[in-house]
Design goal:
The complex is a heterodimer of chains A (309) and B (378). Chain A is an alpha/beta fold. Helices cover 35% and strands 28% of the residues of chain A. Chain A folds into 2 domains: 5-221, P-loop containing nucleotide triphosphate hydrolases (Rossmann fold, 3-Layer(aba) Sandwich), CATH 3.40.50.300; 227-292, Alpha-Beta Plaits, CATH 3.30.70.100. Chain A contains 11 helices and 14 strands. Chain B has 378 residues and is of the alpha/beta class. Chain B has 2 domains: 4-45 and 179-374, no CATH class; 52-172, D-Maltodextrin-Binding Protein, domain 2. Chain B contains 14 helices and 6 strands. Chain B has helices at 4-22, 26-47, 71-79, 114-122, 146-159, 167-170, 183-213, 216-221, 227-257, 265-286, 293-310, 325-328, 332-346, 350-374; strands at 52-59, 81-83, 92-97, 105-112, 128-133, 136-140. In chain B, β3 and β4 (105-112) form a beta hairpin. The longest helix of chain B has 31 residues, at 183-213. Chain B is elongated and about 95 Å long. The chains are: A alpha/beta (309), B alpha/beta (378). The A-B interface holds A 51-54, 73, 76-77, 79, 81, 83, 85-89, 91-92, 96-97, 99-101, 103-106, 144 and B 5, 8-9, 11-13, 15-16, 19-20, 23-24, 211, 214-216, 218-225, 378. The complex binds adenosine-5'-triphosphate and magnesium ion. Adenosine-5'-triphosphate binds next to β2 and α1 of chain A.
Chain lengths: 309, 378
């Protein structure tokens, strides 16, 4: 059986921006994948090409084995999507908007009622869209995406701007869907917890390229032994050169906050070495924390930038 | 639309567009009340017999007319009615010549000197300056100013003792107040067609630009929605609104001004629909690509303004230079307005309006299909 989504060597440029530069990706049936990347990474451009809304300059995209060209009507019936930002008609009620979109799929009232229950908007059915909160609007958008029992669900930042509770509510809807194993999903996000929580497959993308991909375990596998030591010194204003000169490992140093980071792969032997080093330089530690490596660290390592600044 | 499922989708699109419009309370005012107010305002100011006031400067050497013995001063003392105005030192007289058929004419005479009189004339606060000249009266006015000339003619008549319209000649004057020949009869069909044009152009383009910039169009075409259904639903809703607005305006004008349709109602309905389709098509074309309100406003104005001015909505386009008339007559709004007006006022029917209606339909069809082809949904 053909994979749910196949993307082969896809490129897309705008006037002077190369938004997507050679992406390959394959998502098996029933799997959930996350595109994780900072602002401007090319996530929206990539999913919109998968959604058939934008056309790639080069490369191929197939959904359940079908390219967009020549299969548009069929594909429109089997995918569900939410755009990064859509504002629905302000003066229609939640019920009316859902009815309208349901009619595009030849679906009736029953399905609309199911969706209202699924996304928890039953008591807002008569409310006008303009009066919904941000989280309720996101749930409405998700409800519309789910109307047609999509086999492929494409969500562009479904939880951006939501508080942690609202985010968890959306996650639980998606996790229920995952249990059904009939839907494949691609989701874009800035939140690594979201990718970790929902997705089997994570693609870290930046500047239009996939930097690394795999399951969470695979991504962090080589690095599981590595530990991160974050520390602060009682010596504000020291320059990076002063702190790291002669160090046995590389030290990331933020002189303004007097905070540093080192990555150790053999913590038992290296931690004493590190203390010894500080002692020799007559530097006094104020605070220290040792933790496992996360996606965020991996991202910083791959790009030299943090996912959230 | 043969299968019931499409029907379903179309029905929901119409309902959605319709509710969106109706739930905007300002629609009631701008679409319904405002045109009525315009017709009321313009209709009243141009149809009622007007009472005219002419301001006349009287040159005198001495400030008190009582010390002047010239013909004009004697006339004023005898027939005029002295008006005392505490704020103004210049003595004034007022003389009203009554005329129930054409409206009363009132002369206001202000005694003044040459210098002041010239200044007032330049400011158009005086139409006419009279001066004693020997035993007679000399009149000074701008011969290119029709008001001034009229004031002169009426005043000489009044001074010579004849009424403006003597009972004998009054019998020859037949003021045109018959339905179909008044200004209001000219105006209301124009207001109806202009209203339809404005509503199509602004309503459709605004709605489209709004949905495009909200990314709603993009979201909708990412479903199996039929694009043509979306646009046709928009047209159906807009045209239904326009029918309601036009009928209400007509009823209003009928009640207030006793306006009537003298020609074929069926032909009226056909050309009204055709005109609406033309402007919906143009509106869809105009808003087929722009995503910003500024550009949209500019484009709509570029279509709407020239036609509003040239197509003879408020005054006849025959005032424009002769060479431009054939061009003006081919504008959609002119075809539309002339057609509707001829049915209202000249008793026209299908014979006269089928061709303009067909042209309007074709215009709508062409712009619609080109618009649909180049339409930017994203
Ligand atoms: N229509 C467009 N015209 C010009 N440039 C564009 C267009 N769409 C996207 N870009 C550019 O392409 C790059 C990738 O944009 P994209 O929206 O795909 O990023 P993203 O990963 O979704 O970012 P975000 O997290 O902020 O949503 C950006 O530099 C953006 O400025
Ligand atoms: Mg994006």
């Amino acid at each position: 059986m053909a994979p749910a989504v196949e993307v082969q060597d896809v490129y897309k440029s705008f006037k002077n921006v190369r938004a997507v530069r050679g992406v390959d990706l394959e998502i098996e049936n029933g799997r959930f994948a996350a595109l994780l990347g900072p602002n401007g990474a090319g996530k929206t451009t990539l999913v919109e090409m998968i959604e058939g809304i934008q056309k790639p300059d080069q490369g191929e995209i197939r959904i359940h084995g079908m390219p967009w060209k020549g299969n548009e009507q069929r594909l429109r019936h089997i995918i569900g999507l939410s755009l990064q930002e859509t504002r629905f008609i302000d003066k229609l009620s939640v019920w009316e908007i859902l009815r309208l979109f349901a009619s595009f799929f030849s679906l009736g009232k029953n399905r609309v009622n199911e969706i209202l229950e699924l996304v928890g908007l039953e008591d807002k059915r008569q409310a006008w869209v303009v009066n919904l909160s941000g989280g309720q609007r996101q749930r409405l958008a998700l409800g519309i995406a789910l109307l047609n029992h999509p086999r492929v669900l494409l969500l562009d930042e479904p939880t951006t701007g939501l508080d942690p509770n609202a985010r968890r509510e959306i996650w639980s809807i998606l996790l229920d869907l995952k249990k059904g194993a009939e839907t494949s999903m691609v989701l874009t996000t800035h939140y690594m917890e979201e990718a970790e929580e929902l997705c089997d497959h994570i693609l870290i993308i930046d500047q239009g390229r996939v930097l690394r991909e795999g399951s969470l375990d695979q991504l962090l596998a080589d690095e599981t032994r590595e530990k991160i030591i974050e520390f602060t010194l009682d010596a504000a204003g020291l320059s990076k050169e002063t702190v790291s000169a002669g160090a046995p490992f590389s030290i990331e140093w933020d002189s303004f906050n007097a905070r540093g980071t080192v990555i150790l792969d053999h913590i038992e032997s290296q931690l004493p070495q590190f203390f010894e080093f500080l002692h020799q330089k007559n530097l006094h530690m104020k605070n220290m924390e040792c933790r496992k490596k996360t996606l965020d660290d991996l991202f910083t390592e791959l790009t030299g930038r943090r996912l959230h600044e | 639309m043969s299968n019931p499922i499409c029907h379903h989708q179309f029905f929901h699109l119409v309902a959605a567009h319709g509710k969106e419009i109706i739930r905007e309370p300002a629609v009631i005012f701008w679409g319904i009340i405002f045109p009525m107010l315009i017709s009321l305002g313009l209709g009243l100011s141009f149809t009622q017999t007007r009472d005219v006031v002419h301001h006349v400067g009287v040159i005198s050497d001495s400030a008190d007319a009582g010390q002047n013995d010239s013909k004009i001063h004697a006339f004023l003392r005898e027939h005029g009615q002295k008006v005392s105005e505490p704020t103004d030192h210049a003595p004034k007289y007022r003389l009203t010549v009554e005329n129930p058929q054409l409206g009363d004419t009132t002369f206001v005479f202000t005694q003044t000197d040459w210098k002041t009189a010239t200044v007032l004339l330049k400011r158009d606060r005086l139409h006419l300056i009279v001066e004693p000249a020997g035993g007679d009266i000399a009149y000074h006015f701008d011969p290119r100013n029709p008001d001034a000339e009229l004031a002169y003619l009426k005043l000489t008549k009044a001074i010579s003792g004849k009424p403006v319209a003597s009972p004998e000649i009054a019998g020859n004057i037949k003021p045109l107040t018959v339905t179909g020949t008044r200004y209001i009869d000219f105006l209301v069909p124009g207001l109806i067609t202009m209203g339809a044009m404005m509503s199509c152009m602004w309503g459709i383009s605004y709605g489209m630009i709004d949905k495009r910039s909200k990314k709603l169009l993009r979201r909708m075409v990412a479903t199996p929605m039929r694009k043509s259904h979306f646009l046709m639903a928009l047209m159906v809703v807009r045209i239904s609104m326009n029918i309601i607005e036009a009928v209400l305006l007509f009823i209003f004008a009928y009640l207030v001004f006793d306006i009537a349709v003298q020609g074929s109602i069926a032909a009226l309905a056909v050309i009204f629909l055709a005109g609406n389709i033309a402007f919906c098509g143009i509106a869809i074309f105009v808003s087929s690509r722009t995503a910003t309100t500024e550009v949209g406003n500019g484009l709509v104005n570029a279509v709407v303004l020239p036609m509003t001015v040239m197509s003879g909505i408020f005054f006849s386009y025959h005032n424009f230079p002769d060479w431009s008339i054939p061009f003006i007559q081919k504008l959609p709004l002119t075809l539309f307005t002339d057609g509707i007006r001829s049915i209202f006022n000249e008793g026209a029917g299908f014979a006269e309006t089928t061709i303009p209606a067909a042209i309007l339909l074709a215009v709508g069809g062409i712009f619609f299909s080109v618009g649909l082809r180049v339409f930017r949904w994203h």
